[in-house]
Amino acid sequence: MSIITDLTRDWLTRSLRPFTFTPSYDEVLPYGDCDNLGLYIHIPFCRSICSFCPYCKTVYRKETCDRYIDALLEEIRNVGNTYQGRKKVTSLYFGGGTPALAHARLKEIIDEVNRHFIITDGIGLELHPDDVREPVLKELKEAGVTRISIGIQSFHDKYQDILGRRTVDIKAMKEALEAVPFETVSMDLIFALPSQTLYELEEDVETAFGHGANHVAVYPFIDFTFTDSKLKAMSKQEKHALLDGITNYCLAKGYQRTSIWTFAKEKNAVYSSMTRESFLGFGCSAATLLRDQFKINTFSVDEYCKRIAEGKLPTSLTIRFTRRQRMVYWLFWTLYSTHLDPQDFQRFFGVSLDQMYGAEFILAQLLGFLKKEQGIYHMTLRGAFYYHYYENYYTLAYIDKMWGIMRLEAFPERIEL
Ligand SMILES: C[S@@+](CC[C@H](N)C(=O)[O-])C[C@H]1O[C@@H](n2cnc3c(N)ncnc32)[C@H](O)[C@@H]1O
Ligand code: SF4
Questions:
Q1: Tell me, what's the pLDDT at 43?
Q2: 256 and 339 share a domain?
Q3: What's the 260 CA to ligand 2 centre distance in angstroms?
Q4: How many domains does the chain fold into?
Q5: Whose CA is nearest to atom 3 of ligand 1?
Q6: Global pTM?
Q7: What distance in Å separates the CA atoms of residue 168 and residue 395, rounded to the nearest whole number?
Q8: Which atom of ligand 2 lies at the shortest distance from residue 97's CA?
Q9: CA 46 to each of CA 6, 168, 200: distance values in angstroms, whole numbers, following the listed order
Q10: Chain-centre distance for alpha carbon 325
Q11: Distance from CA of residue 138 to its chain's centroid?
């Protein structure tokens, strides 16, 4: 499995050097010179734990959650205070876990962020369907949240059963969303579940759009090795047919593809915590991507709080990128949006894309993965499938390995990918 990712890494970075993560880290993060900076805050609490889920999370207890949020406020303050004035950032996303469980303290967190940053494009937050009720939505909106994402997974009971989740109360959800509207209401759906058909997936998309969503994320099921899930992943051919099928269906219905896995029913509906050139992450397991480094915070809630109490950053591991490694990272995540403007590459790296990866982009066009129109690269249906397919390898070879270690060790010695 990792041979594919290793060979691609060696080829594109023009080096045999692995991605090496070590515990040494910067106490002062150099984010001042980053344009298009995004913010991410992780809230690692859920009412109950789903067996298939790889994210950093633990069962909600009010006392632990309060202690965690006190530490989180301190981390935001410590990082924010290293910059003179308020730094302009694009957006703030709350992910988890289930950040809506912290609704009562959300305003406090957003107020602290606003003391140090100017958010230009809005605030997004993830909810479990059980939290989509009028009083909670009102509280989120009053705190400044403009976009929400709801973890539906499937509207079909048989798939909810397979995933160990409860039936979604679509009536209660729709009423709450009508009473308290948001700019973007995104719903997460999982596809490639055992024996799932294209028709069922199309029904899920329509049910989402018919019950308050103006954006959907259609994620392929990923079988992480460290989770307790007993579900078997679908074969490559079946997955390919489902991904192409649902993409063609959405495009034929006039929905706009906003990234590899997301579709919008309305023009301005966007929800993406991933496609950022650089971002600062706060909280357990949160990652930070800057000009030449990527760092990831400890996954342990207790160790996180301890580090903050010692006046230190909760960084567990950092990788210092070579220039080519940073370029590969940039290209991978920019292409997630299915479009790439070579001028953005030139602006970020000060060198032309042609000079660094001209041959690879010609090859990608010859293979039918990309099309160039008016100077911009667009991913084809074929390209999107292979990107998705490669992303699966990347997730299993890199993220699975890294998170598998980090959930057991708060501060690992070293990880090589
Ligand atoms: C943090 S959860 C969303 C909010 C809330 N915790 C919930 O579950 O409703 C993020 C999303 O990741 C997706 N996800 C989780 N585990 C996955 C897996 N093994 N494969 C694919 N997608 C997964 C689900 O669609 C889930 O809604
Ligand atoms: S899918 Fe959502 S609710 Fe389930 S464990 Fe993961 S973060 Fe928690």
A1: 98
A2: no
A3: 22
A4: 2
A5: 151
A6: 0.94
A7: 28
A8: 7
A9: 35, 16, 28
A10: 20
A11: 25
